Amino acid sequence: MDDDVTSSDSRPSGIGTSRDRHDGLNQKTLTELGIRILPYAGATGVVAEIGHGQPTVALRADIDGLPVLEKSDLPFKSTIDGRMHACGHDFHTAALLGGARLLKEHEAELNGTVRLIFQPAEEGHRGAKIMINYGVLNGVQAIAGFHNQPDIPVGTLALKPGAMMASNDNFDVTIQGHGSHAAMPEASHDPIVTLGEVITALQTIRSRNIAPDAALVLTIAAVKAGTIFNVIPDTAEFKGTIRTFSAANRQLAKDRFYEIVEGVTKLNHQTTTISWDRGPACVNNDATLTKALAAALSDTVTEVTAHPCNADDDFALYQERVPGFYGFLGSGGTGVLHQSNYSCNDAGLIYGAKFHLIAAKTMLAAVANGTLGAVDQAV
Question: Does pTM surpass 0.85?
């Protein structure tokens, strides 16, 4: 926690300093609804509360966009070239604002406090960590959220207990060789040949180290080496990602990655530098909370069993600290997440708003009756 974060009797310990910088539109809407805003020290994001007393539960919506040029004629099309809500985080934000309206209307029925978390920087794996460091989970005993899915019909919720989304580890590798004239390869230690051997060998992590029924993805997404046809370069680079659904396989994949990359480059009389970015762990749904929410939401949405998703979400950081639930809510849109033609069907927003109302009430009841256990750290 940063040194300038202070405590106050009027807010949860750790939330707020004198330099409050809220997202203007969200704060304005919440204020107009009569919902109290909590001072929050982050550069972007809003934290608010409805209800009073204990227990306290939380609802989270991510609010950030992507560096994608939007190709649509929607009236709410992005006004900034090269920036759009290509993952539907504007849908998430609007749904939580709708849920806030419903919760405020039902505030007298709330047996506790509901904290609303409008989180920035999910796409870069920074937002949840920043907000947690500023204290948004202080006093919180359960949390819920969802991600829209354009390929699922409006009014449908995909859910499952346990591992829901993959962990994410990204790597950036530089192989240091020795260049030469392309016509005299014997004078070189060719890093391009080594890079090819490394990339091929890395595929054995999935095929020869992980059980066939276990999910793991290892993708090389970028390669860079050389600039001209007649020069063998000194270096070659590649970067990519690994996604897994268990802590054991996550560690195994990393260990084998280092062994292969360092072993092959050494065999070829070269050296390597590996930069490893450890992203979020698995989104891991609490089994008891998932069961309770499935029962509570069954009259509102059509429920289907979710297939584990190889994408990641830093909602996992909240779930490492408190029992949590994350589902896939049908948005019946067009395109695919992160594509320039992606869009949501606005009809799905009412289901998102109702999800938040029902999830908040269900979590408050589950905490009050003591049915939620400790967080399962297995994944």
Answer: yes
